[in-house]
Amino acid sequence: MKEFLIASNNQHKVVELNRILNPLGINAVTPQECGVDLGDVEETGTTFAENAEIKAMSAYKKTSMPTVADDSGLMVDALDGRPGVYSARYAGENATDKDRYTKLLTEMKDVPDDKRTAHFVSSICCILDDKTIIKVEGTVEGKIAYEPKGEDGFGYDPVFITKSGKTFAQLSSDEKDAISHRGNALRKLKEEIIKYI
Ligand code: IMP
Q1: 160 has which bridge partners?
Q2: Over the stretch 94-140, which tens digit does the pLDDT of each residue have?
Q3: Which tens digits make up the pLDDT trace of 42-55?
Q4: For position 40, what pLDDT does the model report?
Q5: Pocket residue to mutate for ligand 1, from 51, 96, 154, most atoms within 8 A of Cβ
Q6: Strands 117-129, 132-144: pairing kind
Q7: Are 123 and 49 in contact (CB under 8 A)?
Q8: Does residue 175 sit in helix, strand or coil?
């Protein structure tokens, strides 16, 4: 199996990435697993695509390994697209997932049902070698719940209601992959990578 470095320490993302990359003969390894320290990379971009490229380029420069980086987040229409690129930092540096979605629910408490639309975005940058950079983006539309539901997943999953009426956190991994922003982006990535391997 080919090894690709995932420029992320978010285990949930790594697992989601591997479920889709493994069938291509690609094993996604974390920086820890291949013994490299990527350090803190400042996400200074104003778009998900810019931040994905910043993370991928920094890891590629340090390791020269084929690298995949994802930058993702939740855009809520009633909040003019917030938390957006600040999804991970929405409730401060040391906040938990629960702190973040609780803050979101508080901000959304007076927003009526028909104005609770939102979407997740996943932007992926994959650097195969000095000359080959692949960039793809996937989205998924949904609504913000009034209260958290479901035990699975991570991040804002318990408060993101999908078209099925269930939150992301109430779906199995396979069900989430089939419709998620990251699943959609990775399926596009797969189509592109196939052209090079
Ligand atoms: P990143 O690591 O900078 O891409 O941060 C993305 C943040 O967006 C995560 O910390 C989560 O809070 C949120 N996020 C991204 N993808 C998902 C998802 O699939 N479910 C729930 N939250 C997500």
Answers
A1: 144
A2: 999 999 999 999 999 999 999 999 999 999 999 999 999 999 999 99
A3: 889 999 999 999 99
A4: 85
A5: 154
A6: antiparallel
A7: yes
A8: helix
> Residue 37 has what DSSP assignment?
-
Residues in the chain: 197
Q: What would the two tokens of residue 150 be?
A: 């479901």
Contact between residue 111 and residue 78 where contact means Cβ atoms under 8 Å apart: yes
Q: Is 89 helix (H, G, I), strand (E, B) or coil?
A: helix
Q: What is the CA radius of gyration of the chain?
A: 17
pTM of model > 0.85: yes
> What span, in angstroms and rounded, lies between the C-alpha atoms of 54 and 41?
8
- The residues pairing with 133 across neighbouring beta strands, listed in sequence order, are 127
Pairing mode of beta strands 67-76, 26-29? unpaired
* Ligand 1 center–CA 87 separation, angstroms: 6
Other beta carbons within 10 angstroms of residue 97's beta carbon come to: 17
Instruction: Report H helices in the chain.
Output: 11-21, 48-63, 97-107, 173-179, 181-193
Ligand 1 centroid to residue 137 C-alpha, Å:
14
Q: Could you give the 3-state DSSP secondary structure of residue 127?
A: strand
